[in-house]
Records
---
Amino acid sequence: MTKQKCAVLISGNGSNLQALIDACAKPDFPVQIVRVISNNEQAFGLQRAHKAGIETLIIDHRGFHSRDDFDLALHDALIECGAQIVCLAGFMRILTADFVGKWPAKMLNIHPSLLPSYRGLHTHRRALEDGVKFAGCTVHFVVPEMDAGPIVIQAAVPILPNDTEQTLTQRVLEQEHHIYPQALR
Ligand code: GRF
């Protein structure tokens, strides 16, 4: 089987990266991760990549004068490793429309809400404050508008009476780890 080459962009813990690494380790999974790129050298996800023998690259956004310059470096790094698909997995940078336009229907993101509800940050806190009964997560294609774009897959998670931001985050994360590999496949 010829596997599609994928690069994963992270900024932090990388538990979704781990779910993708585990899925890609299966012989029949049609994708291989060729590089993990982080804008943050402290990201724990880099250690996960090392452990899996995946090449890593740090591109620190603070070393660039503009978003355009950072995104150009990112694009070059993706081309260099032969990536055909890009997965954003807790990558905490807003990408320019120019950059996004170079990966049409080739870039996925995972977001911890049932989009189009709760775009942006602190999704679970806001859901709890609003008293909604279901939280969840979404994998979607990336378009220039943040946390928008065609939805590939979602998982709904019931909000329980005693949920805190922490407990809800944990239960939604478990679902994220199920749906991201499915969406990538
Ligand atoms: C996840 O909740 C993901 O949905 C959001 O950022 C978080 C990343 O977590 N985009 P991790 O680094 O994959 O553990």
Note: DSSP finds six helices and seven strands in the chain.
---
Amino acid sequence: MCGIVGIYSNKDISKELYYSLYSMQHRGQESCGIAVADQNEINYKKDMGLVGDVFKEDELAKLTGTMGIGHVRYSTAGGSHLANCQPLVGSCRKRKLALAHNGNLVNANYLKDMLEEEGYMFQANSDTEVILYILARYYKGDIVESLKITMDHIKGAYSLVIMGDNELVAVRDPHGFRPLILGKKGDEYIFASEDCAIDILGGEVIRDVEPGEIIVVKDGEMKSYFYNENYKPVKKSCIFEHIYFARNDATIDNVNVYDFRIKCGEILAKNDDIKADIVVPVPDSGWAGAIGYSNYSKLPISEGLVKNRYVGRTFIKPTQEEREIGVKIKLNPLSKIVKGKSVVLVDDSVVRGTTSRLIVKSLKDAGASEIHLRITSPPVQYSCYYGIDTPNRSKLIASQNSIEEIREYIGCDSLAFLEIEGMLEATEEKSTFCKACFDGDYPVKKIDREELLSC
Ligand code: AMP
């Protein structure tokens, strides 16, 4: 998963890019980068690490330019190393191009084979490089035309910001899997994965970029195109963004993330009859759901786990061992609150089960008499091919185990998940979501080579 931002302005914007990326740090913590266009040059800096560590004031000052793009990365395709940091910057027909991508292609391997057969040499192993090369391959001077062809080739999830010498382009795939939001601040145009990145600049959110839409900002003017005039967009916005990934203050495709999470908690409580003393959220992602649960059940909500604010998202660690240590460093029980109590512990999701298991153990060690784990989403049973890091099905605890087996593994006294119908009850936009991780109904299938070559 990643966060992207693009800004078109008439003043230097590297600081604005920096602040926007900072606000989207939750979307990826492995690496980050900023590229700015200055006359005919694109200057950039990217590196492994957090935004605040990679960019120092003096370096930002050197990145001069009135148009730029930025990226924070958590790898879902391609390894965690420098070559895969974004934005990717290249040149094509004497024009510089920079590109930042959020999402995952489902046919990147085949496209890569095809390009390699034609003599392209890849420097990195992420799917983003494939997009850049296809774009360059069909570029004859008109970025929109080359994008339309590129979008016919690439399949899967992609929100992109692309920068040429004098234009900024934002693109969302025909299903709109990943978010991309358009904002304005005076004459300045801002595109970002989440609205927090627009808010913190004092900008105003205008709207979501539509599925299949290509927006070009050039000479101070914005123009919108669709990748295929005959295509009827079928919006399939990722529901996991609303469950876990996005910040509480995000609104994506007209669904407010906080409202959604509160409602999920309320619906979970409505279908529950457990008797307990307190509701304890797993910070931070369990808070909104726990508030909803507490609202409906009338059980008091208490902070039973203290979070170390200086540790990042634990899931966002590439190995299992690191993930386990991460959870321990991150959360500590408040024994004063939980001792002798029957606790409804609320979290947003169970993926591998590692987090819940460790938390339940630490709450029990701290004296909680019972732990009733309540999850404000359905069991994650299928891999995500579109950019959420749940790629290997065998690692998903719910793909191999019954709820009772999961309960046993986690070590809680009872366990309940929100059902798919309950989750959809929390929003009016029911049919517009991709929920393949819960029901295996993939809007875009993985494509084989023959199919690809015939398209
Ligand atoms: P696990 O230990 O694998 O069950 O991790 C589940 C926890 O990680 C949940 O509490 C979520 O808050 C968080 N989480 C779930 N899915 C993701 C994801 N794709 N990326 C990062 N964190 C996640």
Note: The radius of gyration is 22 Å.
